[in-house]
Amino acid sequence: MTADELKQKALMIFSRHGYEGASLSLIADEAGIKKQSIYSHFKSKDELFLKAAEEVFQNELNRALSNIKHGSESNLKETLYQFLADYMEKYEQNPETRFWLRISFFPPGHLYDSVMVQVYRHLDTLEEALTALFAQAEIRANPEQAAIAFLGVLDSVFVEMLYGGKERQIKRLDAAWNIFWNGIALEGLK
């Protein structure tokens, strides 16, 4: 088994059980190897967790930036709404997205600083990309403030993804989205 294959198996366990509930024995069982074999690739559970987290953060950021990049002024409303709705779908279907969101909000205490470096890098890069997107569009809001407000809408959807059910997610998304869009859109874009 390669280190990448082991990371993928560990990711499944971390996404289901969190850091605390994911023992190396459980990861080894999932991978079909002996626990000691993990140490030929990773020094510790912490290292395995952080390597998996690093990869997932990069994948999530690449996906988000790709979605933003393909947006344009002509379909800004659709692009932004789909960006939000896509996260809800990915959370339900993709263990990587569940893992990413879970550790972003609930990093293991002793790894907090290491995880938060990645969280803030992700948020800062996303804010820059959104600011650039809004700067190209005709909106009535300051592009930087619009980006920050959009991230606030995204955060509220994330909270419902973690704590509420699908119905609450949709309710939150619809209400926050409508207020956000009506706040930034020029009259002709509504």
Description of the molecule:
Pfam families: TetR_N (PF00440). It comes from Metabacillus sediminis. Keywords: DNA-binding, Transcription, Transcription regulation. The structure is a single chain. The protein starts with a helix and ends in a 6-residue tail after the last helix. With 190 residues, the chain is mainly alpha-helical.
Given helix and strand content, the structural type is mainly alpha
Percentage of residues in strands: under 5%
Largest sheet: none
Total helices: the number is: 9
Averaged pLDDT:
92
Report the radius of gyration as a whole number of Å: 19 Å
Q: Give the number of DSSP strands.
A: 0
Q: Termini separation (Å)? A: 53 Å
Q: Please tell me what the overall shape is.
A: elongated
What percent of residues adopt helix (DSSP H or I)?
over 70%
Characteristic terms for this protein:
190 residues; mainly alpha
Describe the protein's topology:
Layout lengths: L2 H19 L2 H8 L3 H4 L6 H25 L6 H18 L1 H11 L6 H25 L6 H21 L2 H19 L6
Helix pairs in contact: 1-2, 1-4, 1-6, 4-6, 4-7, 5-6, 5-8, 5-9, 7-8, 8-9
Produce a short descriptive summary.
With 190 residues, this protein is an all-alpha fold.
